[in-house]
Amino acid sequence: xxxxxxxxxxxxxxxxxxxxxxxxxxxxxxxxxxxxxxxxxxxxxxxxxxxxxxxxxxxxxxxxxxxxxxxxxxxxxxxxxxxxxxxxxxxxxxxxxxxxxxxxxxxxxxxxxxxxxxxxxxxxxxxxxxxxxxxxxxxxxxxxxxxxxxxxxxxxxxxxxxxxxxxxxxxxxxxxxxxxxxxxxxxxxxxxxxxxxxxxxxxxxxxxxxxxxxxxxxxxxxxxxxxxxxxxxxxxxxxxxxxxxxxxxxxxxxxxxxxxxxxxxxxxxxxxxxxxxxxxxxxxxxxxxxxxxxxxxxxxxxxxxxxxxxxxxxxxxxxx
Length: 320
Ligand SMILES: Nc1nc2c(ncn2[C@@H]2O[C@H](COP(=O)(O)OP(=O)(O)OP(=O)(O)O)[C@@H](O)[C@H]2O)c(=O)[nH]1
Ligand SMILES: [Mg+2]
Hints:
This protein has helices at residues 2-12, 16-28, 31-40, 60-73, 92-105, 125-137, 153-160, 174-186, 200-212, 236-252, 255-280, 283-297, 303-319; strands spanning 48-54, 78-84, 110-116, 142-148, 163-168, 189-192, 225-227. By secondary structure, it is α/β, with parallel strands linked by helices.
């Protein structure tokens, strides 16, 4: 317990090594992590959270690196959480990220952490948000989540971020594909990166057309498209000012609190589901499930029937 107190103090003093240790504790997901998060919770809520998503190789890390440099010049501290939904054993991609980010990674005001989340109970959202909360408590001003948009992960990121950037590139059809994949719904700002490549203007035009089809009210946020060349830094200043505008917009419309409240609600429901699942899945009910599986396989019982049996078994325990 004392050790936990000490860790907490170090986190509140922006000690990067303490933050790193605490994130490892969170990744292990035991009761210590819950205690730590509870004790820090009154110190969070100050950091601005930015999600960066988009197709593989769109330049998300390069962009994050440039944004980080920009924020550092303003004296702001930046925490980066690279969420890897694909593999817990990624070598190449994350290594690449480190190389591209090493301009900023030796800086005391920058914290970078990769979190691989495949197979973790409850998906990635919960633990990455926990990690972001830690960074928030450690006085990081800006938190950037980077994740490749390949399914569920970008939705989780959008739920964790105040402003979500969808990064696209001019290559044919990319943007249209991405739109189909549901990225359109979550983008507060679209970034046409690699705008040094041929076809960038046309890609922006077609993206504009797609965005105008999005249903919206006159008071809604006008989703901008920002052109960047992330590896040279071109357009980054403009991108940062769009992020500022979005932040101001949320504040002026009283949406900021409302959005955070909505996200908190989703998060608490996720935690309840997680805690419940943990309670339900003891050895006895795992065995019950294994027993019943053959019946489902033969078509004798539906998955719902079996699920209800398992729940009844759990509820029985509650009433005695
Ligand atoms: N020509 C050009 N190349 C770029 C630009 N931005 C990034 N790149 C290059 O594109 C490649 C991929 O960039 P990353 O930043 O790793 O892309 P990413 O989206 O983080 O990639 P994953 O995390 O693997 O999905 C690198 O070789 C970058 O140098 C750009 O604006 N123009
Ligand atoms: Mg990357």
